[in-house]
Amino acid sequence: xxxxxxxxMPETQEMFVHLSKGMVExxxxxxxxDKAIGDGDHGVGMARGFEAVLQKLQxxxxxxxxxxxxxxxxxxxxxxxxxxxxVFGTLFxxxxxxxxxxxxxxxxxxxxxxxxxxxxxxxxxxxxxxDKTMVDAxxxxxxxxxxxxxxxxxxxLAAVTEAxxxxxxxxxEIVATIGKAKTLGDRSLGHPDxxxxxxxxxLEFMREYVARDA
Length: 214
Ligand SMILES: [Mg+2]
Prior knowledge:
The chain is mainly α. 67% of the residues lie in helices and 0% in strands. The protein has 9 helices and no strands. The chain is globular, with a radius of gyration of 16 Å.
């Protein structure tokens, strides 16, 4: 029995179903995290978004990774709404850029998804590293995925998830300067950014799926 070094289309779709269920189940955790430094709506928004993604994924099959990611991104954008909808929708839509003809999800595909997704998010959200946003988890994850783009997928995802976790933890040390938490100033210290937690969790649920015995 071995973890998966790459995924075909049905398994890729299943991985995103697993990710979506995990995000829906993380609603309370994300609500508490956002209440600490924001308005507390992040958990409800993400849960609503991934409920919609679940319905979309269970409603049909996708021929390519690009098609699947675009559907995930569009669904998140329209169902979460607001700034989070734009940012997380952009991550998947931007991440789909070079993946329109791919039908195997491997470490190279993960890297293209995260690197192109990061670029799109930076343009759209106007956030840079150190602003206490999801970029602080996404950027180290994207860099690590590029480094490990030739590794087996399970190995890459384990390291990429750890990079995202460390980046998320690092947001505790940052005073928020943009977004709703900026009004808190120093009181945002000690609390991680909710969007960075979501970014880490999405990767963690992918890692968990791929680490299962095939
Ligand atoms: Mg909020």
